[in-house]
């Protein structure tokens, strides 16, 4: 059977794709329809030159959007076969999806799909309740299903050793005026279709915090509402660190985030120790895992919150012009 994806398939799946997380909510992706396939492209105009000089963050975000696309197409009954970076002559083309044999979605695909509009980064303190073993296991399985690993740091000393690496990376970044002004440029005090709304930024950091917050916040902390003293920290890693590995890691990131949402958990991301090469190397050595750390997650039970805005789907689509 010869089937193609249509503009209608793309439009519907794109609604899910654009809900993916991205650095500073830059939404650095484009989606296009070509020869019956759907293509995911990095949008270089939306890369953060100071914060993400290598494009790692763009590829993670596009990988996450790709995962949402895959799930949405599977739930629509036409799952995709995916080729990553299919054309060396076009490095911004990160993935091409072509229709596979139609089938009914699995229960897992359905629950991941249902989690897409509910997921958001929760930068507020979490409740101290521990994350149960079965939920931890599910998160690890989600990473493994996408050819990645999730290392959960166990014990106060592992978390505080990580905290030191993360805080020193944070200090290195904060010394760079271009990094700071980029963050300020993407912080939104007024409603906007991209950038991080100040209301989502979390509270101002305090010296006693174990983990460094990126600094989108500014809200005063309610008395006694410190961050959890022993957060559950997960390090997501991939087997290698090529551009393709980073797109793979983005898909794993989104699968872990949606699995967490489905399990009633909240997550915030913290990538300062990934962005500073010496910190990333220290983190890699401290874990003793094969491969490369790609993202750090703080996981727990959070208060309710709200998903952040996105640009309209029309702004990211590139559809063939139909002749009049
Ligand atoms: C590659 C990458 C790095 C990120 N780094 C951080 C970070 O260091 N601190 C943080 O608070 N959020 C971080 N985020 C989360 C984004 O700020 C967030 O996804 C974006 O603002 C959209 O909000 P949402 O996740 O609520 O949809 C990161 C996201 C990605 C994809």
Explain what the structure shows:
The protein is an alpha+beta fold and 324 residues long. 36% of the residues lie in helices and 17% in strands. It contains 9 helices and 11 strands. The strands form 3 sheets. Strands 3-4-2-1-11 form a 5-stranded mixed sheet, with helices on one face. Strands 5-8-10-9 form a 4-stranded antiparallel sheet, sandwiched between helices. Strand 1 and strand 2 (37-42) form a beta hairpin. The longest helix has 20 residues, at 56-75. 46% of the residues are buried. The mean pLDDT is 95. Residues 21-25, 57, 60-61, 120-121, 123, 196, 214, 268-272, 307-308 line the site of flavin mononucleotide.
Give descriptors for this structure.
single chain, alpha+beta, five-stranded mixed β-sheet, 9 helices
Overall spatial form: globular
Determine the strand fraction and express it as a percent band. 15-25%
Low-confidence stretches: none
Helix content: 25-40%
Helical stretch count?
Answer: 9
- Give helix and strand order, one letter per element, not per position: HEEHEEHHEHHEEEHEHHEE
Structural class: alpha+beta
What distance lies between the first and last C-alpha atoms, to the nearest angstrom?
Answer: 30 Å
Computed CA radius of gyration, to the nearest angstrom? 19 Å
Hetero compounds: flavin mononucleotide
Strands in their spatial order, largest beta sheet: 3-4-2-1-11
Question: What is the average of the pLDDT values?
Answer: 95
Number of strands: 11
Main beta-sheet annotation: 5 strands, mixed
């Amino acid at each position: 059977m010869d089937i193609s994806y249509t503009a209608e398939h793309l439009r519907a799946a794109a609604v899910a794709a654009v809900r993916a997380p991205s650095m500073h909510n830059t939404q650095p992706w484009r989606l296009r329809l070509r020869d019956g396939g759907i293509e995911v492209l990095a949008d270089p105009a939306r890369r953060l030159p100071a914060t993400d000089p290598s494009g790692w963050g763009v590829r993670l975000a596009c990988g996450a959007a790709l995962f949402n696309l895959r799930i949405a197409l599977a739930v629509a009954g036409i799952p995709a076969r995916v080729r990553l970076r299919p054309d060396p002559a076009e490095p911004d083309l990160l993935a091409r999806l072509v229709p596979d044999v139609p089938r009914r979605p699995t229960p897992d695909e359905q629950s991941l799909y249902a989690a897409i509009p509910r997921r958001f980064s929760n930068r507020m303190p979490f409740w101290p309740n521990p994350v149960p073993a079965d939920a931890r296991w599910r998160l690890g399985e989600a990473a493994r299903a996408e050819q990645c690993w999730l290392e959960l740091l166990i014990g106060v000393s592992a978390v505080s050793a990580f905290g030191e690496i993360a805080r020193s990376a944070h200090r290195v970044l904060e010394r760079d005026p271009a990094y700071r002004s980029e963050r300020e440029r993407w912080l939104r005090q007024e409603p906007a279709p991209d950038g991080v709304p100040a209301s989502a930024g979390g509270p101002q950091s305090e010296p006693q915090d174990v983990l460094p917050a990126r600094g989108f916040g500014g809200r005063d902390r309610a008395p006694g509402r410190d961050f959890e003293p022993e957060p559950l920290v997960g390090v997501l890693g991939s087997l290698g660190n090529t551009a393709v590995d980073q797109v793979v890691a983005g898909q794993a990131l989104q699968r872990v985030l949606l699995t967490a949402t489905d399990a009633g958990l909240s997550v915030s991301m913290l990538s300062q120790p990934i962005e500073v090469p010496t910190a990333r190397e220290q983190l890699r050595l401290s874990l003793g895992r094969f491969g490369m750390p790609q993202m750090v997650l703080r996981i727990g039970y959070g208060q309710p919150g709200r998903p952040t805005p996105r640009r309209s789907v029309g702004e990211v689509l590139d559809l063939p012009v139909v002749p009049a």
